[in-house]
Amino acid sequence: MAGLLTQLFTWWNGQTIGTRFYTWKKGEKVGTDEFGNIYYRTPDKARTAGGFPERRWVVYSGYAEASKIPTGWHGWMHHRVEAPPPSQNYKPRAWQKPHRANPTGTAAAYRPKGSIIGADQRPRVTGDYDAWTPS
């Protein structure tokens, strides 16, 4: 029951009822990545014959966070490559880093020097700056 209510009232956790129905009706599973996200496409010949690209989407495992899509799948989702990563034996480049969750709002978030919630204090203003005062 809780799973059904979650699908009815949240869009950020897995998939909604509408996405589940559309995926069941028109979706063709393409593959799964290492995070458990499942990728689909619509093999609609009428749509591609009209000049439109095929529709591609992802059903996230857990909370929907776009940065959880690996590099190879990102290229496929945005129509940069035609073949999905499982069929093209995609190997990440040496300079590509593995996924790291977005730390915004956590203790690991970046807080610049002088930030209100940062640990450091803002440096004192030197003599090259005069505060404006109304005359």
N-to-C CA distance: 67 Å
Q: Helix fraction?
A: 25-40%
Total number of β-strand segments?
3
Structural class: alpha+beta
Rounded to an integer, what's the Rg over CA atoms?
Answer: 23 Å
Q: Mean of the pLDDT scores?
A: 78
Note the run of SSEs as H and E: HHEEHEHH
The largest pleated sheet is described as:
3 strands, antiparallel
Region (Disordered): 84-135
InterPro entries: NDUFA12 (IPR007763)
Organism: Kaistia dalseonensis
Protein name: NADH:ubiquinone oxidoreductase subunit
Task: Present the secondary structure layout.
Blueprint (H helix, E strand, L loop, with lengths): L1 H8 L7 H10 L1 E5 L5 E4 L3 H5 L6 E4 L11 H7 L7 H4 L47
Antiparallel strand pairs: 1-2, 2-3
Overview features:
3-stranded antiparallel β-sheet; 10% strand; 3 strands; single chain; 135 residues; alpha+beta; 5 helices
Could you explain the architecture of this structure?
The longest helix has 10 residues, at 17-26. A hairpin with a 5-residue loop joins strand 1 and strand 2. The protein has helices spanning 2-9, 17-26, 45-49, 71-77, 85-88, and strands at residues 28-32, 38-41, 56-59. Strands 1-2-3 form a three-stranded antiparallel sheet, sandwiched between helices. The chain starts with a helix and ends in a 47-residue tail after the last helix. The model has no long low-confidence stretch (mean pLDDT 78). By secondary structure, the chain is of the alpha+beta class. It is elongated, with a radius of gyration of 23 Å. The protein is built from five helices and three strands, in the order H-H-E-E-H-E-H-H. It has a domain at 2-88. Helices cover 25% and strands 10% of the residues.
